[in-house]
Design goal:
Blueprint (H helix, E strand, L loop, with lengths): L1 E4 L4 H13 L4 E4 L10 H6 L7 E4 L2 E4 L1 H9 L12 H17 L2 H15 L5 H21 L13 H7 L16 H10 L3 H21 L6
Parallel strand pairs: 1-2
Antiparallel strand pairs: 1-3, 3-4
Helix pairs in contact: 1-3, 1-9, 4-7, 5-6
Bound molecules: glutathione.
């Protein structure tokens, strides 16, 4: 399976981590987002939306990290990442909530406070305020859900955890304001102990560190 990806993307981190966790081998094809390679005509033929991750599995081309994660989970006999019965509905509910609500605020701040610096573009303060507002609106719900739970569905991680945690991948670099949410921070730390999630997180950090060096930027000020 070919995985068109940029290791610096939280969405690609989900795809890489789930594949590794399930023992599925992927051929990674680097699409350098910072160089605009996702807008190249060849890539747009594959994914007219111009986004990574994009997966090619034989005749099937899939976009949307949520769908690709499910494609992997349903290709193995049984995995706790994608539980059966009511727990699966609950996981699906959180995946939908992540896409519709929780994963809105953080990417706005990542773009405004971090990625724009690579392009030398000015920060749009209204988008920063909107990103913060959305985090303040939705983070308390996830924080409350995690009281007394190690992971979102229960004792074991599921695809829902990766769908929710992916946008926190740039938390330090973009200084995402999650300090008030102790349960989210503890859960994020627990997820980072899962080898496949940690490994994809390390590749993301290395990728961004190299990009920062190449651009002559420092983000630890
Ligand atoms: N809903 C998509 C979002 C994918 C997405 O936004 N990917 C980003 C990287 S994290 C991207 O390709 N950005 C390029 C652009 O939008 O120009 C998914 O979950 O796979």
């Amino acid at each position: 399976m070919k995985h068109y990806m940029d290791p610096g993307s939280g969405s690609c981190r989900r795809v890489s981590a789930v594949a590794q966790h399930l023992g599925i081998e992927l051929e990674d094809i680097f699409v350098n987002l910072l160089k605009g390679e996702h807008r190249a005509p060849g890539f747009l033929k594959l994914n007219p939306g111009g986004k990574v991750p994009t997966l090619v599995d034989g005749d099937l081309t899939l976009t949307e990290a949520d769908v690709i994660m499910v494609h992997f989970a349903e290709s193995v006999p049984e995995t706790a990442l994608w539980p059966q019965g009511p727990a699966r509905r609950e996981a699906q509910r959180w995946i939908a909530w992540a896409a519709e609500h929780f994963r809105q605020g953080p990417p706005m701040l990542v773009e405004e406070l971090y990625l724009k610096r690579f392009m030398g573009a000015p920060t749009d303060d209204s988008r920063v305020a909107e990103g913060r507002r959305r985090i303040e609106l939705f983070a308390p719900l996830l924080d409350a859900r995690l009281i007394g739970r190690d992971f979102v569905i229960g004792a074991a991680p599921t695809l829902a955890d990766f769908a929710l945690a992916a946008p926190l991948s740039h938390m330090t670099r973009a200084k995402l304001p999650f300090e008030p949410y102790a349960n989210i921070l503890a859960w994020n730390a627990r997820l980072n102990e899962i080898p496949a999630w940690r490994d994809a997180g390390a590749r993301l950090r290395d990728r961004m560190a190299q990009a920062e060096d190449a651009a002559g930027l420092r983000f630890d000020e």
